[in-house]
Amino acid sequence: MDFQLDKTENLSNGDTVTVTAVYDDYLTETYGCIPESDTKTYTVEGLDSYMTSFDGLPDGALDEVHTDSRDRVESLIANKEQICGAFIDWSTDTPDTYQVDTQNLKLYTSYLLVSKGADFGAKYSNRYIAVYHTTGSMSKKSWFGDSYNGDMYIAVDYKDLKFDESGNLIVNLTDAEYTYFTTADNAYNYWMTSNKDCYKVFEQKAVAPAAAPGIFRRAGCFRAACPAEDTHPGPGGPGSFPAGRAVGERAISRQGTLALPQALCHNKAKTARI
After folding, report:
1. In the chain, what is the straight-line distance between the N-terminal and C-terminal CA atoms, in Å?
2. Are the CB atoms for 49 and 162 separated by under 8 Å?
3. Strand 147-159 relative to strand 162-163: parallel, antiparallel, unpaired?
4. Which residue, 208, 210, 213, is CA-closest to 109?
5. Which has fewest Cβ within 10 Å: 37, 164, 185, 268?
6. Contact assessment for residue 189 and residue 213, using Cβ atoms and an 8 Å cutoff
7. Per residue in 118-154, pLDDT tens?
8. DSSP 261-272
9. Mean pLDDT in each 10-residue stretch from start to end of the chain (274 residues)?
10. DSSP 214-240
11. Threshold 0.70, pTM exceeds
């Protein structure tokens, strides 16, 4: 006797699976066995389920993630060399001047990317990105003569968030990556617009920071040195830069891969799926 299931994959709690017994007359003639029913339907339960929407989240479901992401951003800000390397050049030297507003550091928005399916090329079932905003100024005496004064958006990316049978959110807090941006539009384009081919995208806005008068903005984005639609693969595969510049004119990852200048991006655009 064999059994056939009408569904064997992509199952979620609450789905039904029908099991059908397949046999021939030899079974009944030889053993005198006659099944009471050829089919039986079961309801799927006890599975972990991936986060697919901001709607219906239990109160406080993301508190642990937000605590971890804020701690990470504050730690990054305390690392002057890394922030300086992200926003003005690729050196790890201590900046000559450095001031970042930690008092007004706020969660600006959150993005949720939900896979459309493996056939669409999504690498993860979902990704949750917490984007923080503050302002800062820094400078370095170098042959570039670089400085930065303006908005700072730092995004922390978590992967494959899911709920257990009891409704508790399970997040691997050790597997987080950072991206740096000088404008909110660049953050949105990099994470949301450029991923619509393989993910369903959702945004949950937290707070809109007011622009400080007289701040000089330099358009650009981390990892790509140009808008999100012209991103370049990192050394670990598409979109894999772990850290790098935020500003558009020059970019380099911590692993030493130089991105194209912005003037060249539109002629040598590549699509990075992340």
Report:
1. 46
2. yes
3. unpaired
4. 208
5. 37
6. no
7. 889 999 999 999 999 999 999 887 655 688 999 999 9
8. PHHHHTTS----
9. 83 86 76 80 86 91 96 94 82 82 95 93 95 93 77 97 89 94 96 97 77 38 34 34 37 30 29 33
10. TPPP---BTTTSS-GGG---BTTBTT-
11. no
Q: Give Cα separations from 178 to 35, 75, 86, 225, 253 (angstroms).
A: 58, 12, 11, 15, 12
pLDDT tens, residue by residue, 48-59: 789 999 998 888
- The CA-based diameter of the chain, rounded to the nearest angstrom, is 92
Measuring CA to CA, how many Å separate 203 from each of 77, 111, 127, 136, 175?
25, 5, 12, 25, 21
Amino acid at 30: T
Contact of 220 with 190, CB cutoff 8 Å: no
Tokens 């949950």, residue located: 204
Q: Side by side, which strands form the sheet with 162-163?
A: 49-50, 162-163, 169-170
